[in-house]
Design a protein that fits this description.
- The protein is α+β, with helices and mostly antiparallel strands and about 140 residues long.
- Helix content is about 25%, strand content about 20%.
- It contains four helices and five strands.
- The protein has a five-stranded mixed β-sheet with strand order 2-4-3-1-5.
- It is extended and about 60 Å long.
Length: about 140
């Protein structure tokens, strides 16, 4: 057998990405101020949660989702979104929620982070066929 580096003569050797490539990809400069609409499936995130913790867990999961999607630690939930999550009581948060996530500049000078994320409710009649959309701010 030849020692070409590949195990199979017909298959090319597997491509490996170095850690520096991964770091460069992950820390690529994101556009500073951006707004997107997402649908968050809450019922799968509060599944097997005890009843009295479901709505609080749903709010935490929205924050966690926004943190991952927008890459900011500081996530603020709008009061209309909070009221929508709690509208059906502590035991039974809505199945899905359409959320507008906006990455904004922090006005507070001594803040730890320059950017924060604002999560707002987007009212829709049906969740069928909705995808993530970029929203052009006017």
């Amino acid at each position: 057998p030849s020692s070409t580096g590949s195990l199979c003569p017909l298959r090319p050797p597997p491509q490996t990405t170095t850690t520096t490539q991964k770091m460069a990809r992950d820390s690529a400069p994101k556009p500073d101020l951006v707004t997107r609409d997402y649908t968050i499936h809450l019922s799968k995130r509060v599944h097997k949660q005890q009843f009295k913790k479901r709505a609080p867990r749903a709010v935490k999961e929205i924050k966690k989702f926004a943190e991952q999607a927008m890459g900011t630690k500081d996530v603020r939930i709008d009061t209309r979104l909070n009221k929508y999550v709690w509208s059906t009581g502590v035991k039974n948060p809505p199945t899905r929620v359409r959320v507008r996530l906006s990455r904004k500049r922090n006005e507070d000078e001594e803040a730890d982070e320059k950017l924060y994320t604002l999560a707002q409710l987007v009212e829709v009649s049906s969740f069928k066929g909705l995808q993530t959309e970029n929203v052009e701010s006017a």
